[in-house]
Structures are given as C-alpha cells and as structure tokens.
Amino acid sequence: MDLAVGIDAGGTSTRAIAVSPDGAVVGRGAAGGANPNSNGLAAAASNVAAAVGAALAGRACGCVVLGMAGSSKLLADPAALAEFTSALASVGAPAPVVLSDAEVAFASGAVEADGTVLIAGTGSIAMRIAAHRRAETAGGYGWLLGDEGSAFWLGREAVRAVLDALLRGADLGPFRSAVLAEAGASAFGELITVVNTRPPIDLARFAPLVSAHASEDPAAQDIVERAAQALAALAAQVHHGGPVVIAGSVAAPTRPWEHASAPCSPKRFPPSPDCPTPAPRCCPPPTCARPPTVSSVPPASPPPLPSATASRRPSTQMI
C-alpha cells in the first residue's frame, strides 16, 4: 500500500505528513527551514528529505506534494528541482509535485475553489486563487527585496528600533531591552556585530517580542501598525471576492495585528459581485469598527472548514 506525502516547507520549519489511500494520517515528520532562497538549496533539500523520511518510516511512497515558500526556484531551475528529487529519492520518495505554500494554505483553509490567501510567516505573500491554483500574486520577493509585515520584517524593525534608541541615548523600555537581551548584546556596535554574524533570516526570532510588547510599548505598537498596513495592502492587491485565508507564524494566536488599529478601508477591499459591502468581513485581520469573524487553530491541527452555504460575504479563515 503506497502512501502519499504532503509537505509544508517554510523558511523556518518543514512539516510532512504521510497518509494512506483512505486518507488516514499514518506518519508525521518535521525538520528545519526549506526555502531554497533563504536557507540555501542543499540545506533546504536535506530538510525536506529528513521530514519526509520521518513521516514514511521506511514505508513505500507513491506520491509527494511539496508546498513550499520559494517554490519559484524549483519551478524555474531544473537543477534545483533535481537536487530536491535526489534528496527525496534517498528516503524512498518519488519526484515531488511542486506548489507554492500559498496554494497549499488556501486548500487547507477553504472549501471554495476561488478566493484569496495571505501568508504572513517568515516571509510574506498574497495570492488570488482560481480553480485551486495561483491566478495572481502580490509580494513574495524574499527578505532582501520585500517580505513586508513578515516575521523577518518584524524582527528587523525591532532591531532597528533598538539601534535608533541607542543612538539617541533614549530610554530603551521593556520592549527594546528585551530585544537587546535576546541578541545577547549590550551596546550599539555590539548589536550590529551580533546581528550581522547571523544569517539575515535569523532576524525573524525577534518577531515574538514585538507581539509580546505591542499592547504596552509605543515602539512595538508602531511596528505592528506598519506590519498590519503592509499585509492588508498585499492582500488588497489581489482580492476579488471569495474567502480570505490567512496562514503563517505571524498568524498564530499571538499574531501582532491583534494590537493594530488599522481601519477596515473600502479602498483596501472594494465591493465585488460576491461581496457587495466592503466591511466588516471583506477585510483583513486589522481591527475594524465591527471586527470580522476570524477563527484560529493551532498550526499542528487541521483547520476548520468554512461552510460553503454561509453568507455571500467572503469569510476570513486563519490557519
């Protein structure tokens, strides 16, 4: 009995599940980040193989679906795809069907075939989905060129807030002090040195500190406001009706936008045939006058599926 394996590969972590022909989950595996653009090709392929190998535990595999951040690398570069195919073969798995993490996230959070998905994880991207596949994309440029509102972006802005305060001789306060302590530094030059000796994507580790202090610290609140606006703008570029699925580490229960006050603007999510009114549910998670209904589930749990016969307004589903 050949198993099928589904893989969720992000910049920080990789998860794989093995399922039997009747849909029962029979194995799970996890490993480090597998975005080839931020983690490196060899490390990314190795981490995918490690997660799949753990999920299969030596059993036969007939199909692999790889949903990943940085999928464009594999789709555009035959050598990169060959690296992943070779790594998977080493654990008894066939060549993967490659999809973007956004396509996989939408499928896991909505029963509809069309809608919008916003990924706010280590990186950020918004995508319009039509017939279960990518139709239009905004963002997704990676840490060097974009990723606004992502965990990387939040962490970078947190470090910059500390550096600005140190230069001005201002009081650091609990938030900036926590960032400095997490970095293991005590002064301006030392912080710059510490950050630059680590891979750039490692800045994402400071993101939870932004969420933790956003309700009480103006500097953290400012970062959250700008992140929420950036993520809303990404989704608005591609949204044309249907459900909005939100996924990624920044969409966890401690998501920073819970502390944001960005308005639900009709300019961001204009009316559509499926959504005659722009608010409150045709909007992303930033707090509105009448907050949208948003459900959240732990990352390791299957997300609840919205009813296909519910209101004609697009729902916002968080996974």
Plain-language structure description:
- With 319 residues, the chain is an alpha/beta fold.
- It folds into 2 domains: 3-95, ATPase, nucleotide binding domain (Nucleotidyltransferase, domain 5); 109-319, Nucleotidyltransferase, domain 5 (2-Layer Sandwich).
- It is 35% helix and 20% strand.
- The chain starts with a strand and ends with a strand.
Topology, pairings included?
Elements: E1 3-9, E2 13-19, E3 25-32, H1 36-39, H2 41-56, E4 61-68, H3 71-76, H4 78-89, E5 97-100, H5 101-109, E6 115-120, E7 124-130, E8 133-139, H6 151-168, H7 173-183, H8 188-196, H9 207-213, H10 218-238, E9 244-247, E10 294-295, E11 316-318
Parallel strand pairs: 1-4, 4-5, 6-9, 9-11, 10-11
Antiparallel strand pairs: 1-2, 2-3, 6-7, 7-8
Helix pairs in contact: 2-4, 6-7, 6-9, 6-10, 7-9, 9-10
| Strand percent estimate | 15-25%
* CATH fold assignment of the largest domain: Nucleotidyltransferase, domain 5
Helix content: 25-40%
What is the radius of gyration?
A: 20 Å
Structural class: alpha/beta
Domain ATPase BadF/BadG/BcrA/BcrD type: 5-241
Region (Disordered): 256-319
Organism: Actinokineospora soli
Biased composition (Pro residues): 268-289
Notable characteristics:
20% strand, 6-stranded mixed β-sheet, 2 domains, 5-stranded mixed β-sheet, Nucleotidyltransferase, domain 5, 35% helix, 319 residues
